[in-house]
Amino acid sequence: MLSNRHLYDKKKLTNPYLGDQLINTITTHINLGILIEDESGLVISINEAFCNMFNIKAPKETLIGSDLILNGSIDLSVLENEYYFIQRTNEILSERKMVTNDGIELKNGQYLERDYIPIIEGELYQGHIWYYKSSTEKYLVEKKLEKIKKAYGDLFSHLPNDIAVLDPEYADLFLNPITVKDEELRQYILEWMIHPNYPNSTTLFPGKDINNYQDLFASVIQNKIEGTIEEKRVNENGEIHYYLRNLKPVFDETGKLNMLIGLNTDITERVKVEEDLKKAKRLTEDISKAKELFLANISHEIRTPLNGILGLANLIKKTELNQQQSKMAWMIDEAANNLLVIVNDILNLEKISSGEIIFEEIPFQLKDQIATIVDSFQYKAEEQNLLLKFENELERDQMVLGDPYRLSQILNNLISNAIKFSEKGFVSVTLSSISETDNLIWCKIAVKDTGIGIAPNQIEQIFEPFKQADSSITRKFGGTGLGLGICKKLIENMGGRIAVESVPSKGSTFSCILPIKKNNKVLSPTINQPNYEILKGCRILLAEDVEMNQFITRTLLEEKGVYVSVAINGKEVIEKVTNYQYDLILMDISMPYMDGIQATSIIRNMNHPTKKSIPIIAMTANAFKKDETKYRSVGMNGYLSKPFHETQLYNAIIEVLDQAHFIVQDEQIETPNTTSNKLYNEELIMGMGKGRPEFIQKMVGLFLKTMPIDMELLVNSATINDWKTVEKTAHRMKSAFRGMGIKMAATKVKRIEEMATDIPLDQSIYTHINELNQLLKEVLTQLKEDYPNAFVPK
């Protein structure tokens, strides 16, 4: 009756169980509305009762083979809610499961019920039968019964389980034997009724706790007010039960106690549930804290190796490059910014918890943005001998307002998948326009490949998190199965939709349709560049315990004429602030002896008015919203997430020096891979040194100086079981290894750092320390051979 239609084939009436004259005769004599349709929703058989229910005037024989909705035969106006009827019908047809007593309300106050029976032979869906019957009387009776039931339900829902009415004069007594299950309590009540003026309970003194029924009786009688307690009882079998006791006194007109109404409820299950809930709450809080700690650690571990890409790309772009190299450097920078968006979403607890994603509205050239994304995959496509092409079918170049990073995130995933799953042939990306308005363009981006394809029964699950079309795909191609699910969510949140067409062994086409705002107010860009000249001559105290980070940050600042002083822990910071004057402090949060939070707190409580108000910017690898609150609370002026762009560093300093509001800089980068046989990353070192031999020699010399000392401290601390020192030393060494691109050593020392906190201690940590020691010796040998002129900076 609904969904996609086609012209009805009259030959289908030869089917042995559809359209037979016997069926028509039976349906005519049944006092039910009957409609039989084939698998496409076209009428096979219909009776007069159904036609009367839906005001169908056409002869029944003319309805055979037609769609009652599309041909307008059925009068939907008789329904109270036409939209719900169509929606519910589609829902039932799509599920193809038997449905009974599905209710329908008509505008004339009548009610119908319908049954749906699918006709399935083997696994083949042949059609279905609808049965419609009047249920008005039944409906009205049920409504009345529900009303009565609700009234009684409301009455008894306000009554505890057990009720006892106690009258000392025996004039009116209600004591259900099952009401008072406690024999001791029953005996007490009976004695009280015999001697109401002499209660068995001791007279209560003011302030005495009431924790049993005897005290409750005494309290109610003495004070002449209602009382309630929760009582714990242990029966003869040692079973614990909890009871809610309520006693209400009723007085006559003279104020004399007339009766007591006692309500007693067994709340054992409720108490157990409450205890379970308390345990669950504590467990949830512990898990939440563990999750936050885990994400904080992961944040630190991810952001620390991200220090390279952006700094490297910026340094590379400052050297003399040919056209191809400039383009590659720009593509590295673009890819790093796309990575920032993904990393920040993963690490932001609030966004993970709420699912909230904020989309930017940035002007960009739609065609150029997609072309750049496609170009970034050319090398990968060439490695697999694939042709990767971009086809722009837009009639004109279109400036739009949107989030280019989210668009890149979507296309990066789709193109990456297309290349990964294609062993030969091509991958094409096509941009076209479906429709336009004055302010909006509906664009279609199709990514087509000649890869392995997807089976029809697996298409739906590929958009579910952590699922791929087949488990063998994970084994062969890798991946988490998160990518397409994220793409789908992003596209839907942008107001669009994604679809896929695929043929196994021939390829797939993923098409996303997105509404994107036009940038109708295209103005000549007037970008206010920060005046970095104001940094010249500034006196900045850099609080940082990792020498590699000191070296990079100091170099960037000194390039702008900044005078930089370095402190390696919070104590040194306090000493230097006490003895010298600075314009600003860059404060690392995690430092030995005294961290950045403690140091800032001490500075803010100094007596000297100038020193206590020195602007302080936190430098941290943790980018959590709660951290911003913590930094504000101790009096910091802002925070800068590591790793950072050099422009972010400069801008943060300028903003803090010029303004009073709290500033935030929190975009990050990543270190590049290397195909060199070296144990260290030579490209990373060259890039950070901007090709300047003296800078590189100093940097390598610094590593050659500090690493053997730290390694010796690590070994000696492990020998005497000083695992706290092992943990701190490993953490410091990890940053240096990553700064030099020594991934094997960074991975090994990270494992040692984690194991040093394990209880009980994993004895294999000694093996890891020995292996790290041997690996470091090999690295030092390589560096000494490759950089014989390396020297330690003074």
Short overview:
The chain has 794 residues and is an alpha+beta fold. Helix content is 44%, strand content 20%. The N and C termini lie far apart (86 Å).
Which descriptor suits the 3D outline? extended
Largest sheet: 7 strands, mixed
Rg (C-alpha, Å): 39 Å
Low-confidence runs: 3-19, 176-180, 198-207, 348-354, 474-480, 522-527, 666-675
The assigned structural class equals alpha+beta
Q: What is the CA–CA distance across the termini?
A: 86 Å
**Number of helical segments with 4 or more residues:** 26
**Number of beta strands:** 23
Beta-strand percentage range: 15-25%
Average pLDDT, rounded to a whole number, is 77
What do these coordinates show?
The chain has 794 residues and is of the alpha+beta class. Helix content is 44%, strand content 20%. The protein contains 26 helices and 23 strands. Strands 11, 12, 13, 14, 15, 16 and 17 form a seven-stranded mixed β-sheet that branches. Helix 18 packs parallel to helix 19 (596-604). The longest helix is centred in the middle third of the chain and has 36 residues, at 268-303. The chain is extended and about 105 Å long. The chain starts with 20 loop residues before the first helix and ends in an 8-residue tail after the last helix.
